[in-house]
């Protein structure tokens, strides 16, 4: 027993703990099962394998788990379950090992603690199994070719239901299979001829020889994926009977249930299996309504119609139709679809945590077809059996509790169900006692736009739910524009500028209180001032929506514009769709641009919107649901759909029905032009072809895009050719041949196999008929050898195929065998004395020839006059055809003298020695030539020059270059150049330069206006005047464009000059200077450049004279335009180039500062010192050295040795210290490899340069004695 003193001592602590637990209220919660563990409602197991049923739950204290099977709680400790059923380590998951057949049932997990019981959704546990097929001998089936065949399959019992398929059993033993064999069977390929019904029976709708499968068996296979096993049975052997199939009408073999019940969101399938030969074309339609092409599709094999994600609006009638042309009308069957739905939540119950003394309501509502029932449970018991709490009421979808106490915590279940399924919810009610606190405080500073609704956060926590009071400053906010949400947040509707300020919330319940505050800043609202207007552009034109907005001055920098088309953002690609500030520009509009456009101007706080509509008048959209209603031997009936919304705002005018065939699938032909109010049309077909069809719609704007072509192929039967070849004729281009030509028949006109042409020929007057067969329909010519020239023949070309001849007979024609060269030659060919020879024409005459067919060996067509330049017949011959014109009417009398044939030939070359003759012609050949005559055309005017170009373009000038005339037609005496300004379509006055010499092919055209278009003309001239002109249009450069920078190509130096050559960059649109000159100066000198002007503006080189020999120079080329001081003056200099002139530079050297001189002096001083020492030694020894005497004899002053020494330097005969030697002046030193010099080649003879200053000779020259001395000194140094 605990002492009383101890209890008294710890009593305050116990009371405090109890109060804390009361205030926090967070130390317990009812259990709640995790519903994500029960996504799988059906669990399959194999006997002797394990079963794992997952279950986990949350709750405080932790829940205790149990499982219910078929409504009874499982006793894990019972003899039959102990050791075989247990919980996994995760807590509530049930593990059964090993599983037995007795374990099948409905399972439900249960989790409980002191505050309630949670129940999971029910799980159906089944043993997976599949029974074998019944055993019997293979069934032999012998259908007739082209008839239908049904292969029955009775699947065995399977849990879950097995997947049924058909295979071809190869009948191979195991030892007969090699490693490359994929198995002893092949799956039966299901296509538009072979299919299965929903029960697994196989249908061959049109039996063929290949269906025998070489005697192998058809086997039905049932596959149960749960047991990883498949069974085979129902073996069939098919032996087709007959030699050839026959045409059979369409019959309905099987169809799925007529009345179909579909569930919302699921997939529904209808199926019709038709038989017939030819193979039936199967079409599906939705009766009286348009099918949703995205969800409703015909299967690839055409037998099924599938509706995915079924909706209530899909209810109605659907129809299949099979047609193969045997009967006039298709075989049809209608289905009725009724749509229902399994339950779905409309108000799903949720967990509720409430405070003591509060009222709560649980909602549980669902919808479905039929209407679902609602059932409530408390802690796993039906509501009627749960009597623990009396303070509750309920209706069908509501469960209400009043005046809650902490002991009222519990778990509530709700079941919503109908015949198609159920919904299960497991939620808890947790009754708590928690002090009021602010869990999410207002933002310290909040910005909002005027007229907007703002929510200031003050979210609370506490049980019972705290009361919340809001203040702005000292003023409490109540009603009107102010609304306090259940969460505690304050909502202010229609915010005004005066609403800016500080806001504070106060929260309180019976267990505590709290408060928090924040500041609100209100900005002026954004308004669109310029709204877009509705547009109706024509297809291909541009369109622009304008949009401009105003906003608060503090937020202007954040203002941006966004455009939407039909609530989707407009993609700005800056190519076709552009945005400039708020304006939207759409180039080259099309029908896809039609829609509602929205401009949104926003600054991050608020936004304003404006709408406008664009209706693009464009060609119509393609029609849809194009179907083949009937396909007969010679015609088809086509139906389509087209809505008024597809007209694209231009009245519909008509449709164009097009077709293609398998012979030319890429080529579409127009078959009919139905009226705008028609939705079906008839089209004429050709036999023995496969057709598909498409439709185009036409309005006033143009022809729209075609619809998708029909999926059904319309096949027409064989027939005889519809006609014989057309345009049969003979050609006489080959002598001793009869050549027959005709238009080849297209492949679609052959109408059957076995097609050929039959050509028959008969010489007029003979009885013999010859026939020739050609079995290639593309051939259109037959050459038949004959021994006649231009004789009449009767020719017929016929067509035939395996069916027979066309109904109409071929019409024969009269043709002729090949022609030959005429036997007659024109006589007395001469110049016509009545016609004068001009620079481009001459008249001729000659005697007519005998034009009879015998003489002409063909049909006389006329004469050819042939003219050529003397000695250039092969390359310059020109033939002028003079057609024969038969005389009209009869002559009154025969003239005694035959009239000459006369003609005038034009476009002869001027100023040329010419020769000519004449020949007679028939349709293909010419006679021998007549006598040849000679004549000369006088001088004429030249043709246009071969080219004219603006080599350089400046702002005030052009440099023009041109070629000689293509045909000079005489001696060129000069060129005339004219020019005129162009302003749009207005041409200014023509100005013409002085005539230029014949040898001039470049000129400078100055004095022009900047940035102006000019038309430039040039004419060549002879003594006869100006010839044809050549025109170019050139625009002068803008003054704002910098001048093109010259680039020096080379600087060729000579002893006293340099030849500088430059070029301009090869760049379009550059501005070229009007003048160019050269600036130069000595290398290294800082100062003004010397200028050498360019005397000829056409030259791109300048020779600079009067330079010093052997000196390094810098040079650059300067482009300029205008006059210095003017506003338009500009110049541009090239990069500098360094060169050294040839020869030897004159040197002024200070010898006393030369290194070699100082060294020599030091050496002499050392020698003198040694000499003095030797003399002193000699003198000390008594010997006399007569140095003084010897010096005197040499003329030196013994008293002034230093002076004598200097005199010795002055008398240097080797040139050291002479004016020609190098000194240390850097301006006179050669630059070596850094110069652009030709010094190593010696002096350059001025004679080696031509008159324009360019270098033409070899480098080198004679050196004088002075040069040799200078060279010697350079070598010495």
From TrEMBL:
Region: Disordered, residue numbers: 1191-1277
InterPro entries named in the record: FN3_dom (IPR003961), FN3_sf (IPR036116), Ig-like_dom (IPR007110), Ig-like_dom_sf (IPR036179), Ig-like_fold (IPR013783), Ig_I-set (IPR013098), Ig_sub (IPR003599), Ig_sub2 (IPR003598)
Residues in the signal sequence: 1-26
Compartment(s) of residence: Membrane
GO biological process entries: axon guidance; dendrite self-avoidance; homophilic cell adhesion via plasma membrane adhesion molecules
Amino acid composition bias (Polar residues), ranges on this chain: 1211-1224, 1268-1277
Transmembrane segments: 1156-1177
Acidic residues bias spans: 1233-1243
Membrane topology, from the record: Single-pass type I membrane protein
Gene Ontology CC annotations of this record: axon; plasma membrane
GO molecular function, one term: cell-cell adhesion mediator activity
Residue stretches making up the Ig-like domain: 31-124, 132-231, 249-320, 343-418, 435-523, 540-617
Domain Fibronectin type-III: 619-719, 724-820, 825-940, 941-1040, 1042-1144
Keywords: Cell adhesion, Disulfide bond, Immunoglobulin domain, Membrane, Repeat, Signal, Transmembrane, Transmembrane helix
Name under which the protein is recorded: Neuroglian
Annotated organism of origin: Patella caerulea
Lineage: Eukaryota, Metazoa, Spiralia, Lophotrochozoa, Mollusca
